Structures are given as C-alpha cells and as structure tokens.
Amino acid sequence: MSARVYGNPEFLIGRRPVGGDHPCYIIAEAGANHNRDLGTAFRLIEAAAAAHADAVKFQTYTAEGLYSRRTPDMQYLKDKGLVGDQESVWELIKRVEIPWEWHSDLARHARELGISFFSTPFEEAAVDVLEEVGVPAYKIASYEVTHLPLIERVARTGKPVLISTGMASLGDIERALDTAAAAGATDLVVMHCAVNYPPRFADINLRAITTLRTAFQIPIGWSDHTMGHTADVVAVTLGACAVEKHFTLSRDQAGPDHAFALEPQELAEMVTAIREAEESLGSSVKRVTTAEADLFRLGRRSIVAARDIPAGDELTREDLAIKRPGFGIPVESLEQVIGRHVAHDVAGDQVLQWDDLVR
Questions:
Q1: DSSP string, 115-142
Q2: Is residue 145 part of a domain?
Q3: 203 and 351 within one domain
Q4: Could you say which of 17, 20, 165, 201 has the lowest number of CB atoms within 10 Å?
Q5: pTM of the entire structure?
Q6: Cα(227)–Cα(164) distance, rounded to whole angstroms?
C-alpha cells in the first residue's frame, strides 16, 4: 500500500464542511427513482429537503455510454421482475436514464429548497453536463472504480470526489485515488459499500470503515443499499463522514431501485437517527454531566441519622443509615464517621454533614 497522503482531512461541499469532527454529510440518493418523470424528480428533491438531508443526488448516464448492446441477460434482473421477458439490459437502462436536459431544472429546484444537488456521472460527457449546472461535488459509483479516465475527468474539475468501493480491493481503491490525486483532486472521500440490492447485513462488514481510514488516511463514508437505517447509524458511530442512501416516493413503484429504497418518512427517520447517534457519542470523558447534576444530589445515597442522637454522643454503626439524598457525607466516608461525636442534637433521618460532627 502507498504511504502517500491523498487529500485533506476536512473540506467543503458547497458551504457544508465534511470530514474531521463535522456532522455526517447525508446524501439522499434518488438514482433512477424519478421514473423518467420530471414531476416525480421534483417531488424526490422536495422529499429529500423535507427530511433535512444535506444533498439530493441523481445518476447521469445513457444506455449508449453505459452498456454494450451485446451485454448478456442478467438473471437476477429477470428473477426480480425488473426486466421484461424480451427486454435486454440495454433497453432497461434506456428506459430509466435521466434526460440530460433536466439537470438545470433539477439543480434550480434544489437551490430553491436549500439542498445541494449533484449526480453520479457514468461517462465523461456527463461531467460536462454537470459542470454546466454547477454541481458542488462528484460521486463515482462502485461499478466505475476502475474507470480511470472517468475518475481523471472528474478530478480535473477540482471539486470534491466521493468514490464508492463495492466489489473493490484495496489495490483498486489505491489506483482510483492515485488517478484522482494525479489529476489534481485534493478533497476525496472513500465510500465503503457492499453491492447487492439489498445486501445481507452479514455481508456489509462495516468494520472495513476503520480499515479504509487506516489505509488511506482520508475521510471515509458509507454508501448503503440495506433496508432500514440500522447500518447507517452503525456506520456513523464507526466514524463515517458521509452516508448515501437510496430513497423513493414509494416502494410499490416499478423500477430497478425502488424495492430497496427508503420512503420519504423513513428517510426523515434515518436523518433523525443519525443526528441522535452523533449527539449521543458526545465526549470520551467519563464524568457527571450537567444534566445529571440534580439526580446526582438527590438520587445518590449519603449518611443519615438512624435515630435522634443527643449532642456529644459517640456515633456507632447502628446510629447511621445509608439513604437518599446524596448531598450529605458520602457513603465511602462511613468508617471515618463511626466513633466521631456529634456537635449538637441530631434529629432522626437528618442528612449528616461534616459540620454536625466534632472536629
């Protein structure tokens, strides 16, 4: 493995800081779930903004630029009913590709709603389209991690690049990073990913986030295809600086990416869960928190008089009880109290203080 430093530990996507100790950057992945309907695409952007995601992301490709017409049938697509009996993979992609003339309208709608818009390019010509609309960052899909000319073209824009790594070896990732860095990219995120739709939890290996951070010394994120948001919360607790999650207006819709995507309310719940997880991580210092102060005083135990005790009496263990509240002499001082004399009359159930004892 190379010992080179690939990029900055933190940087901006738009005006949002990413990496370091900053909150996780949450990307709502619309992908192909627009169903080639502009109104649906607009509603996806609105749902992402309403969920308080940081960005909404689409995918920019053409069937001509993505697949050879001679690509063999993919049985899993047929098994899932995602292609017709006579439909080829090429025809499926043609059916779900985003019309490139939409990009300016989508970017404008996102700006109006205060959410960042960008897209995953799958061919070099797509980068030119996305540059025209001013995207703040680029995402390289797992399938394109070996498409070094595409990575080089994206890196030359000088914008942050997030590289997904499903199916990738450390060597594949290193080559991709070398290519991006040589082309001038300085703001890089490696996105751990497990490719399947959805993958089994047993196959996602989230501890690899730590491995990738050690190997490449740059921010590491998580690109997710699992159901629910358990994996996303775990990834954040392991230090993921970004999370990407597919979402849809409804899983009942037909199309290749709807079945494993979150619906709008679930997306909002994921964002809330991530933010709560981040807040819960707090500090590594173990101490009484400000929020615990009252309960510390009232809920802990201290030394209390077990009966009325006349002034001057020498205290025995039978004279003392261990009760709440906790603002008296602490329990760990019990042996220091036994054998001391009281300075004045003490009433039963009185919480003892050091001033109640003869010095």
A1: -EEEEEESSHHHHHHHHHHT-S-EEE-G
A2: yes
A3: no
A4: 20
A5: 0.88
A6: 18
